[in-house]
Hints:
By secondary structure, the chain is an all-alpha fold. The chain has a domain of about 350 residues.
Amino acid sequence: xxxxxxxAGMLLGGFMSLSNLYVALxxxxxIGVSITASILAFAIFVSLFRLRLIRREFGxxxxxxxxxxxSAAGYMTGGGTVAAIPALMMITGEVMGGWQMFFWIxxxxxxxxxxxxxxxxxxxxxxxxxxxxxxxxxxxxxxxxGEEGRGGQGKAKLLGYGxxxxxxxxxxxDAKVSWIAWNLPEKIKIPLLTLSGRPLVDYTLSFEGSxxxxxxxxxxxxxxxxxxxxxxxxxxGVLAPWLYSKGIIxxxxxxxxIVAWSVWFGSAMLLTSGLLSxxxxxxxxxxxxxxVGSSMGGRKEGEEAVEVPVQWFFAGLIALTPIVVFLEWLFxxxxxxxxLISVAMSFFIAIVACRxxxxxxxxxxxxLGKITQITFxxxxxxxxxxxxxxxxxxxxIGLHSADLLTDLKSGYLLKADPxxxxxxxxxxxxxxxxxxxxxxxxxxxTADVLGSDRWPAPGxxxxxxxxxxxxxxxxxxxxxxQWSLFIGGALGIVLVILExxxxxxKKFIPSPAGLGLAFTTPAxxxxxxxxxxxxxxxxxxxxxxxxxxxxxxxxxxxIAGESLIGVLLAALVVLGLM
Length: 578
């Protein structure tokens, strides 16, 4: 655990958190941080060593500490900045203050790291849960710092080329300056074709002038991408024109007016499919809860000197719980006893989140957050603020706990010191908060830009929909919206059951997450993501080795370059320089 390792992790993770913020506000998805940060740090320090700017090579365990800080920083969007916070802003129309947001997400992140302490020994040392991303990151570090290190430098170059391409496209499209003769279009329209007498672009049916969407689609894979495309064609190509012709949706059309209706179908599908998938893993939940008692017990001989002491868990819990509860009361007027319930729920949700991540490599933040929303919908009916922000606490803590255990899995395989990784994660949480909050304030200066074509915030749309439904009641919706909510919920259940009953046909069954998200995402984003997934599949079929070498680095580069330029341009506009 060197100063340069922690500093590099804080900086790289901080910059990658900007990419995650940018992409999640547009697509509802987040991009992995650990592997990309490891490759970048390796390439940077190899170059510095060859230039004789540093005296000592960057070692594998240093890189492991670096990616611990980077991972925690990169996932600071999980503290609520792409879901609960924008959902609350869309409901209230009020912008959350910068310091308020910083203390809120940082405290949730720190408590999430602390919550993971008692689960590490049982889930990683004893049960040897896989945590696939942790294994992949460990193998990447071994390859980078072993004989295959040149391959890592090659991937770093590809990531750099992708970043440059993304940056050029973003600057050429968004920088409105006199010396640029013409800008790339934000939307590439499909000419001549109309639906119900309106051009396709009014239904968001166009191509996004962005490399980010191509890169995101290539990484997410074909099944989710084609499921989203199917949902987009049904929603924006069939239902929206019919609803427009009947006068049910606002005649101005556009994303915001269409999604005001379609969010009920998408939210219901995401809610029922997420909760049912979670319920079908009840054995995992039982094992998770049972395992905590074992983790509180004694350790095997020799482990005490290196494991994170359970006393740190109790100290962190005692120190941070009053702060979280106080901030819930101070910022959101949540009753103190409700704040205590949200923290208590967070511990059990963190247990389940870590267990499910260890077994499936997927953290069910959405489903776990919805459990909290339903709980507080009963405890404090009609209060959307309590509903959203208590779920923000439980979901954010669960995500950060799962991230720490995934990180510790890599360290366990590399025989690293978990105490050092724990401290690196704490530094990463603070660094990510310092990067994310100003960037969020630059990108989202007012609440009315959320839910627009530029910042659709699909994840926040779902959180907002559930909170409003629990507050206002089913009867307040338009009859067609009531039917869409019922059909979407039923279809989410059917798709999950089909996945369970006929797993060999799973690739032909629409992904309920992808299909549901399509009803809260502009069609132009979805179309571009599908094209990216299709290109990745074509390359994989033509040359699997080339696909393995090219797809993730180049796609990650597209995302990093374009998103960082997007944040930079927003800052230049605020400063009056552009």
